[in-house]
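In the previous chapter we treated chains in isolation. Here, by contrast, the input contains two separate entities that must be folded as one system, with a combined length of 689 residues.
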Amino acid sequence: MTVGKQNRWIWPAVLGIAVVALVAIALNREPVQLDPNTPEGTVQAYLQAIGDSDYDAAFELLDPEEYEGCSPADLATSVNRGEPFTAVFDTENIEKVGNDTTLVPVRMQFGSTGPFGNGWTQWETFILTDRTGSWLITEEAWPYFVWSCREGDF
Amino acid sequence: MGGIVGLLILGGITVGIIAAVRRVMAKRETSAPSGDIVAYLLLALAVGTAAFSLAELAEAAFPGDSFISDVETQVATALAGLVVAGPVAWVLWRRQAERRRASPGEAGWVVYLAIIEVVFMTGFAIAAFSVINFLVGDGDSPAWINAIVFAGVILLHEVAVRRSPPPTDGAELYRIIGSAIGLITTSIGLAGLIYWVLDQIYGSLAATSSSADVGIWLAFLIVGAPIWAYRWWTSWSDEPSLARKTWLVITSVLGLGVAIGSATSIAVLTALFLFSETDSAATHFAALPGIIGTGTVAAFVWAHHGRRMGDERTAPIQMYGYAMAAIGLSAAIGAATGLATIAFAPADFINDPAPFVISATAILVVGLLVWGRFWSQAQGVPRELEAGTTPRRLYLVGFAVVTGLVSASALIGTLFVLFQLLISGESSDTLAVQASLFVFSGLATWHLLRNSAGDRDLIESPEVLTPFDVTIICSHPGMIATVFPDEARLRVIYRGDEAGVITDDMAQAIVEDIDNISSIVWVDDTGYRVAPARG
């Protein structure tokens, strides 16, 4: 094999090694797992369930009083399926209101990698209430679907 | 074990794609230049897909602070893109590199570099801005990975360009695109910084709240300035390409237009403060820092690019002058329409006409001054030299079409309102607007078409020659064939000695003596003689 022929394989080889390394890191990375009995952990479980299209699990984390008359199917129809998103807590602004309510602001980023940025950013504040030891998302929260199951109220 | 099997499958697919692409490309090896452009477009698509897939994969590996993720989907998507696009990109990249070595100056290479510059330099600027804004400003989502991957793609192409530079003209296209990206980003940053500094001063003097975040403007400047410097401030060839000329015209027109607009805004703000009821001075002039910042940067952009067009009345200078004349005339038409509307519309058409009248008057004056300056500049050139040039034709005919269409639309609107008034007795407040616009844009159209007709008379006046025969008997005709008009049919009979050689001066004199009439020319050591011949 000549020097020229050896050289032409260098870049594909480097790229191939980089790809294998990135795949290995991505698949072996331990995901952040928060305590589900905390407000942040509840928000994480809720958004992760929506990301995984597990709408039953996500719906269970919503306050039944606030979402009376709604079902997981209503939640499912409101989510733009296939639109990937990530979420980051605005930890500095997590706020406790009284003993049983916590406001959890979250920066959500929608869309995938492209030349003109990584989609768009949306700020959401989840209001959580303590229901006998477990936190539930109360008041209307992203992806805002109460209107679709209680049309008469609007 | 599962991982090894997966890698083997991916490797097999990759090798299969490489073999298939090579086979297809081998069949097209002798194809036309159009095939070369197609190959480069496919390469751009493959490089783009591979780079974005790599960025996606890197994000799956290093997701930052996100507390939710769908790693499996991200990895699967990225791998699918890489496995298909990667081999195609590699095979095409090598193929095109070899073809460039064999025949440099391919158009496809120029097109490809331009596409890569648009996509990846823009992507890099946006990603780098998010990173710098995160570091020095209030930014909250730094796109580190995009910045690194896109920088890698740009670097790879820089190396390739140094190995096989595109042809001189083509080399300027991608540099101009990069310059544009750099200049826009730098200008936003610089204007923002000037605004911020002036706003701090204004805030302390006028006791108003001022903007706090300087980081965003710094981020624009830190990202844009190096891109602009690298693409624009490195050496250029002496003779600018079409891309560079076009860019100089665009930046000069936009720069001067925005600078004049900013100056006009300041004048209007001042006049409004003096002659109409306004808030306190502090509130009224709160927009000054932003206007000054924008105007200063625009003036710099104009001064920097304008002087690079040179002093001679070349096509870019003409285009710049006529574009400014068109902008001035458009502004004047709009402002005159506004003023006429105020004068003739019902009293309650606008609640407080004073600010409107002041603004429209200022725009009318400035518009007429700009138009007058550039139009008189064009009129100062001998008309026979200027009349047939493309920029002037574009201005007179193209702009007349625009103003003519506006005038025609306004006439339709005017007639509609009039017929409505006649039929139903209902009048409309917009009659004054429509009628004024019809009159002023109609006047502009008339002016443009009248000048265009004058130009046409000049251009089309050259005498139409009928073909004529010239027989020259000489020892050597020299360059006489190049001095005759195209209608001359020359026949040279050689004397066979050295006594009758036609010099350049003699050639000129012979052509003038013949005066486009069929003739016989005899040349010997005493000079030449011309005798008319039957045509």
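The mean pLDDT of chain A is 82. The beta strands of chain A are 85-89, 95-97, 101-110, 120-131, 134-138. Compare these points with the single-chain example from earlier in the chapter.
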